[in-house]
Amino acid sequence: MSILSKDIIEREILVHLSQHNRGPQPTKSQWIGIIQLIFFRLKTGTQWRELPMRQFLDGPYKWNSVYHHFNRWCKDGSWHRLWLHHLSDKKHLLDLSSAQLDGTHTPCKRGGEASAYQGRKHQVTSNMLCISDNQGILVAASQPEAGNHHDSFNFETHFEELIQMLQEAEIEVEGLFLNADAGFDTQEIRRICQRHGIIPNFDFNPRNGSKWDREEYFDQVLYKRRIVIERSFAWLDSYKSLLIRYETSSRNWFQLNLIGFTTWFISKSLKVL
After folding, report:
1. If pLDDT is split at 50, 70 and 90, which confidence band does 1 have?
2. Is the Cα torsion angle 150, 156, 160, 163 positive or negative in sign?
């Protein structure tokens, strides 16, 4: 099982990942095998210790060598830079006639950073805010937040993270039409969006009064496009390592999600080109 072919990994992935300077360097074939094993774990949720080393990799390598490179690339930001490269390079494939904002809660079996018990789900979870384009392609994610908070908790900080990711990929946010559910319907959040030139199309929260008394603009037809981000979250759950969080490091968990974003975007772009 391989998410991407060896040729695509060599052309689209390997060239953007850092290589260590000490000790013997793996061959190109071995580097590709290491990446394939990381992708295998992403897809199947297999424990690091149970990776099928001989299926993808020749030589005296053990599972902890694969984890070492995964962790090193998380530490030095290689996965983050890889995502930004492909997001910028392929942004012409995006449909930004509207965008969708939502949070996603993930069960955390081992606890860890940015995780806490959520009463509604009766388990420890971690939460992230994400933005997708009008097709459902995920384009930005915030840093993880403990799951005992609602999606709009610490919104300004996390929204700035989303905006920064888009801007680093040279994606213009001014004039963006942003759909979100009633949980984001606060005056503070609307002001934050407007400060960036973003048009908030948020469902009206009944706790803020009757919708008939509201002056804010709301396009019911475009709001229905919000379903595409729900489909995207369901698709990401096909990556078993993202369905349930086992990473205790919030840094590694965040970048594991970016690997999922990247491989999905590359796969979709190959079908278009």
Report:
1. low
2. positive
Query: Which residue segment(s) compose the domain that 41 sits in?
Result: 6-76
User: 3-class DSSP state for residue 220?
Assistant: helix
pLDDT in tens, 32-46: 999 999 999 999 999
Read off the pTM. Answer: 0.93
Residues 202 and 182: beta-carbon distance below 8 Å: yes
For 119-169, the DSSP string reads TTTTEEEEEEEEEE-TT--EEEEPPPEETTS-TTTTHHHHHHHHHHHHHHT
DSSP state at residue 12: I
Residues 104 and 68 in one domain: no
Q: Which DSSP state fits 197?
A: T
Give the SS3 label for residue 254: helix
pLDDT at 60 over 90: no
